[in-house]
Amino acid sequence: xxxxxxxxxxxxxxxxxxxxxxxxxxxxxxxxxxxxxxxxxxxxxxxxxxxxxxxxxxxxxxxxxxx
Length: 67
Prior knowledge:
Elements: H1 3-21, E1 28-31, E2 42-45, H2 47-54
Antiparallel strand pairs: 1-2
């Protein structure tokens, strides 16, 4: 994971924490963590899906075609 991906991961973790804090239900808008440093796409995931992605070391939050 390069620096921009780490920055986006930290931002996504903050988004998830806030969503949990306010008991948000539904899909949460996360930043795409793909390798393209110019990407600013949004990935909609439930908090459970986000947690599933980040618990596996080599996975990242990204759109299907962004790898």
